[in-house]
Amino acid sequence: MGFKTISTVFLSLIIFLGGYAQDAEKQENDLSFEDKVDLLSTPVKDQHRTGTCWSFSTLSFLESEMIRLKRPLVDLSPMFVVYHAYMEKAQKYVRMHGKTNFDAGGVFHDVTNVIRKYGIVPDEIYRGLEYGEDKHVHGEMDNLLKKQVGAIVENTNRKLSPVWQEPVRSALDSYLGELPERFNYQGKEYTPQSFAREYVGLNMDDYVEITSFSHHPYYSRFILEIPDNWAWEEVYNVPLEDLAEIIDAGLENGYSFAWASDVSEKGFLSGNKGIAVVPEVKTVDMTNAEITRWESLSDRQREDELYRIAGPVNEMEVTPEARQSAFDNFQTTDDHGMHIVGKATDQAGNVYYKVKNSWGNYNRFDGFFYASKPYVLYKTTLIMIHKDAIPAHIRQKMKI
Hints:
alpha+beta; Cathepsin B, Chain A; two-stranded antiparallel sheet; 40% helix; 16% strand; globular
């Protein structure tokens, strides 16, 4: 072996060991979590390039409810729900002469409303992939449907024809597939309604949506003013401390819940980090040298400095006023539906919630991530939970 070869190997070894040491130090400094509550859930799914998180997250939650109630395991079909919800949205949009929301988004109650009215089927019976893709990609379908209902509203016939819904239904049939009226599953024939009743066995009336905003009276119900609430359903409104108690008591008593939140916050690190936090950073707490350096950074560099999370961080104090201000100023928007299945602590004892996402196995937690308690309290727009999970003294105030 020549000198050059030996030197190259030696140099490579130094680089390898240096990289290993850096990786070890990085892993040591990274946030780590110990699960305190880890409720059972079905495998992580992938909504891929669609705006259907609301369907995936709610069905994941209902699948966990089936597990909790010792019902059989099943992956329910998100696209069965999407098909029916789109038809319902089309009717609402046309009735409102186009003056309401029509797009791929939705809210948790869209799922329970569909199941209550139309039933549900297993995912293996209705995949909703009839357009040559292995994963869900809805951009073309969404645009076509929007143009269709827009053309129906803008027609010059002075009245609607009795068949205006058929082109919409035909487009959904083409992309997602015709809906099954009857199907066989595990040796038995079902309709979607009988499958929901006999196999799934959940009462959709047992599930309630809860939020916490001060622009409506607490312990009342109101129509949550977000674009995706196209059905104008009412939700329960409770004080922030009650929302926190419902979340913690539910998890500790075996109840998971669907979670709608803003994920545009800079502390939502959706990459391999798998965390969501709201760090507290105040320039008044910096030294003069630190302030000078801070002011010299570009906006992008400043954001990188703020959110380079390498261990437990101090987070903002979440108040009802902060929540309301963020909602009113569009800093908190209803971006994404997920499923909270557990509770954990980091190495400093800070509380986090374990979240099942619908982006496939995209990170170091195999598609789950951990959202800090301040993040959840600050950025929650809505939760859906079984009414029995709500502590009795709060249920009494909510009149449930």
